[in-house]
């Protein structure tokens, strides 16, 4: 029969209050007007459930009200209200009605009005109010029956909050308990790691099976609740599993998420244009080393203690740390005319540095991209003089002063390994590579294809050079791999002798006529072939034309 007295008297209370409102002359005093407003609030309020977390959605500048009543007959009835903002700061307050208005005795009308006003203003009082986005708990005690009104308001934008009311303090807590010192300690910082430790929650020590710690890492700021963190992640364009803290089930993952399971730890990494947010749940361990961070970057760390049975959580006091700066990369000296072959690890995305000190005013840098994709950045005495993505063969002719210091930095722009050949030399130095034609493409003539032969053509130059043609039989499913994995710096020495077709010399002073063709015979009908042409210059270092795949006719 809990709260039965309230339901019995509520109609009478509302009827009396309504009559009282109509009997008051408007406007008379501020107290009377306030009383009218308070009565109006009850008509537009909802009952707040006891012992259950309630999610409340708030519209901007529109207050929302809930009420609850303490049970009659209990001496010093305790209660608590916990409010968790899930986004922007909100305003909320608790008002208490400790007595009901009574009917005044007949008599002088003015005296009766004053008496009503006095009783009306004395029946309501504000016992708590708060403005902010922190999780706040109000704990109260009432010695007699009372009606309580909770009012919530968001002035920034539409948002949502969670509210937990309980009048039963003997059967445990919905929220896990935080230790007396809820701070997170940073006990180790590296270039790509940060090690954290925190005091154990009493709840984790008592209920190890139903409690776990979850860590959230991001580059923006700390979050005061798991609810606020999830809201921020969703608003940035990423989607979280609705039961993140409860189960972290793989089937709840969205396309923007990556899940990693190792050593009983479950991590979810949310990727978006605004950055990366990681959540890691590690059971009841109270230390953790966060791996794979970026050097010289500030990160924010939040630890939440989560009740797996109720999905309720409590937040430790967040902290932040900046990873150490990456050590200066080793610098390789470039010498005049010497070719350096550099292999770059795409996964680490680190710069490879080459240094060259000029002994002449005019300097010539040559880059031959062998595999993958690479970005080059060249500085002279600390100032940028060139920066671009490499493609094929690239020359940079730079003019400066004697003893200028050039720094060449190379970085792979894809996850797979990349490689490049680099040469620095004076402008008059013997060129490393041969004179190149306008295009390194190989052309095939469809009309000249037969079952046994293919005709190809390629451009030459005004300089007499040696050209060697190679062929290789391949299957349909090998085309992409052959074209993508080819090492464009490798020469004929890497090919099998049986693949060689011929070598020839040619040139033409008229570039319009510097074209040569070759018909490759002795092929099989309906078969795919990969053709390569190598150009050799005075230095003997070859340049490989772009590979060409041609299929012979099946029937002739």
Automatic annotation (TrEMBL):
<keyword id="KW-0325">Glycoprotein</keyword>
<feature type="domain" description="Fibronectin type-III">
    <location>
        <begin position="176"/>
        <end position="313"/>
    </location>
</feature>
<comment type="function">
    <text>Secretory protein that plays a role in various cellular processes. Acts as a chemorepellent acting on gonadotropin-releasing hormone (GnRH) expressing neurons regulating their migration to the hypothalamus. Also promotes neuron migration, growth and survival as well as neurite outgrowth and is involved in the development of the olfactory system. May also act through the regulation of growth factors activity and downstream signaling. Also regulates extracellular matrix assembly and cell adhesiveness.</text>
</comment>
<dbReference type="Pfam" id="PF19433">
    <property type="entry name" value="NDNF_C"/>
</dbReference>
<dbReference type="InterPro" id="IPR045805">
    <property type="entry name" value="NDNF_C"/>
</dbReference>
<dbReference type="GO" id="GO:0007399">
    <property type="term" value="P:nervous system development"/>
</dbReference>
<dbReference type="Pfam" id="PF10179">
    <property type="entry name" value="NDNF"/>
</dbReference>
<feature type="signal peptide">
    <location>
        <begin position="1"/>
        <end position="21"/>
    </location>
</feature>
<dbReference type="Pfam" id="PF24354">
    <property type="entry name" value="NDNF_N"/>
</dbReference>
<keyword id="KW-0964">Secreted</keyword>
<dbReference type="InterPro" id="IPR056225">
    <property type="entry name" value="NDNF_N"/>
</dbReference>
<keyword id="KW-0677">Repeat</keyword>
<dbReference type="InterPro" id="IPR013783">
    <property type="entry name" value="Ig-like_fold"/>
</dbReference>
<dbReference type="GO" id="GO:0005576">
    <property type="term" value="C:extracellular region"/>
</dbReference>
<feature type="domain" description="Fibronectin type-III">
    <location>
        <begin position="434"/>
        <end position="542"/>
    </location>
</feature>
<dbReference type="InterPro" id="IPR003961">
    <property type="entry name" value="FN3_dom"/>
</dbReference>
<dbReference type="InterPro" id="IPR019326">
    <property type="entry name" value="NDNF"/>
</dbReference>
<dbReference type="InterPro" id="IPR036116">
    <property type="entry name" value="FN3_sf"/>
</dbReference>
<keyword id="KW-0732">Signal</keyword>
<dbReference type="InterPro" id="IPR055271">
    <property type="entry name" value="NDNF_Fn(III)_1"/>
</dbReference>
<keyword id="KW-0524">Neurogenesis</keyword>
<dbReference type="GO" id="GO:0008201">
    <property type="term" value="F:heparin binding"/>
</dbReference>
<protein>
    <recommendedName>
        <fullName>Protein NDNF</fullName>
    </recommendedName>
</protein>
């Amino acid at each position: 029969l809990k709260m039965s007295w309230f339901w019995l008297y509520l109609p009478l209370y509302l009827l009396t209050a309504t009559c009282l409102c109509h009997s008051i002359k408007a406007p008379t005093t501020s107290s009377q007007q306030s009383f009218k407003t308070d009565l109006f609030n009850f008509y537009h309020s909802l009952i707040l459930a006891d012992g259950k977390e309630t999610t409340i959605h708030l519209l901007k500048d529109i207050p929302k009200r809930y009420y609850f009543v303490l049970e009659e007959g209990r001496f010093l009835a305790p209660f608590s209200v916990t409010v968790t903002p899930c986004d922007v700061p909100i305003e909320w307050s608790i008002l208490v009605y400790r007595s009901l208005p009574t009917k005044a005795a007949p008599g002088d009308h003015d005296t009766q009005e004053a008496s009503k006003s006095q009783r009306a203003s004395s029946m309501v009082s504000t016992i708590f109010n708060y403005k902010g986005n922190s999780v706040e708990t109000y704990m109260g005690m009432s010695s007699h029956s009372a009606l309580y009104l909770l009012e919530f308001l968001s002035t920034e934008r539409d948002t949502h909050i969670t509210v937990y009311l309980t009048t039963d303090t003997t059967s445990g807590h919905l929220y896990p308990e935080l230790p007396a010192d809820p701070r997170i300690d940073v006990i180790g910082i590296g270039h790509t790691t940060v090690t954290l430790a925190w005091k154990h929650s009493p709840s984790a020590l008592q209920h190890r099976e139903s409690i776990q710690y979850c860590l959230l890492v991001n580059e923006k700021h700390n979050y005061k609740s798991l609810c606020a963190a999830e809201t921020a992640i969703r608003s940035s364009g990423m989607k979280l599993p609705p039961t993140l803290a409860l189960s972290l089930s793989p089937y709840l993952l969205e396309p923007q998420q990556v899940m990693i399971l190792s050593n009983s730890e479950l991590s979810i990494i949310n990727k978006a244009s605004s950055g990366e947010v990681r959540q890691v749940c590690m059971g009841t361990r109270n230390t953790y080393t966060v791996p794979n961070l970026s050097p010289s970057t500030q990160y924010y760390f939040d630890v939440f203690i989560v009740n797996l049975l109720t999905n309720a959580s409590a937040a430790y006091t967040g902290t932040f740390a900046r990873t150490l700066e990456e050590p200066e990369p080793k610098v390789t000296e470039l010498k005049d005319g010497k070719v350096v072959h550099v292999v770059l690890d795409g996964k680490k995305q680190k710069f490879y540095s080459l240094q060259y000190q000029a002994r002449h005013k005019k300097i010539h840098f040559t880059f031959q991209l062998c595999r993958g994709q690479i970005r080059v950045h060249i500085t002279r005495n600390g100032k940028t003089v060139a920066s671009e993505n490499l493609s094929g063969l690239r020359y940079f002719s730079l003019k400066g002063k004697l003893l200028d210091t050039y720094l060449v930095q190379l970085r792979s722009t894809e996850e797979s390994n990349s490689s490049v050949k680099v040469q620095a030399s004076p402008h008059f130095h013997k060129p490393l590579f041969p004179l190149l034609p306008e295009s390194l493409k190989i052309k095939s003539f469809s009309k000249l294809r037969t079952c046994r032969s293919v005709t190809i053509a390629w451009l030459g130059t005004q300089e007499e050079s040696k050209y060697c043609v190679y062929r290789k039989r391949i299957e349909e499913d090998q085309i992409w791999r052959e074209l993508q994995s080819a090492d464009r710096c490798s020469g004929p020495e890497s090919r099998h002798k049986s693949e060689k077709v011929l070598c020839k010399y040619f040139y033409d002073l008229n570039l319009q006529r510097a074209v040569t063709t070759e018909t490759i015979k002795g092929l099989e009908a309906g078969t795919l072939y990969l053709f390569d042409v190598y150009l050799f210059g005075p230095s003997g270092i070859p340049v490989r034309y772009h590979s060409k795949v041609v299929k012979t006719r099946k029937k002739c």
